[in-house]
Amino acid sequence: MKHNKLFRPLGFGFATAGALALGLSLGNSGPSPVFAPPAQAQSSADLDRAVTALRAISTMRADFNQIDRAGNVASGTMTLKRPGKIRFDYGKDADLLVVSNGRSLYMIDYEVNQVERWPIRSSPLGALLDPKRDVAQFGTLVPTGSSDVLSIDVQDPKKPEFGRINLIFVRKAGAPGGLELTHWVALDAQNHRTTVRLRNHRYGVAVPDSTFRFRDPRRSSRRPR
């Protein structure tokens, strides 16, 4: 995947990127999530169940898709491991990789030998990587019109620069905690919107810690030929 510089993977900002607004067809997974003024929560028990479901995931792999406002589509595999590790792999021929090692989130651009780093807390994905901290404290349930679909809007009002994320869950008996995360919408501080849809969830898979390491192109580019 040779990515367009206007393409903002997963809602993370970087200096050369332009604006992005993402939206995916949600199939049968429920209504399209929108960022609306906070509504009265359906029940605190639903929020607790969503937090419990996220925390119950020890490891997970899922296929993901995303699309930008110009219609550019990217897809790959997401791998998650507690605590705080995640990898978005766009395929062996891709020049882009997004990885969290549990402390920092990295976007690696092999096309231009560039690595950008954010503390996990500074990304909207902080709510996914640390659900106990973010979802429980800053989450607000948004009505969906379906008892089988939960929509949770997460934002720290004291730190708007961290962005916000809307997590969408569907009730599923075989998923941890009885809820499956089907997609999310991340909105960064510049109001750039990114929607990521998951499918083919696999829970409890073996995931070595080496999955969350990466080759640093800045080092390899300095090697003598």
Describe the structure.
- There is one protein chain.
- It is built from 4 helices and 11 strands.
- It has helices spanning 44-55, 126-129, 131-138, 217-220, and strands spanning 59-67, 73-81, 85-89, 96-101, 104-109, 114-119, 139-142, 149-155, 164-171, 179-187, 193-203.
- A hairpin with a 5-residue loop joins strand 10 (179-187) and strand 11 (193-203).
- The model is unreliable at 13-34 and 36-41 (pLDDT under 50).
- The longest helix is centred in the first third of the chain and has 12 residues, at 44-55.
- Helix 1 (44-55) runs antiparallel to helix 3.
- 12% of the residues lie in helices and 36% in strands.
- An 11-stranded antiparallel β-sheet has the order 6-5-4-3-2-1-11-10-9-8-7.
- With 225 residues, the protein is mainly β.
- The protein has one domain: Lipoprotein localisation LolA/LolB/LppX (outer membrane lipoprotein receptor (LolB), chain A, Clam).
Question: Stretches where pLDDT falls below 50 for ≥5 residues?
Answer: 13-34, 36-41
Sheet with the most strands, sense and barrel status: 11 strands, antiparallel
Number of domains: 1
Total of helices: 4
The CATH architecture category equals: Clam
Regarding CATH, which class?
A: Mainly Beta
CATH homology superfamily: Lipoprotein localisation LolA/LolB/LppX
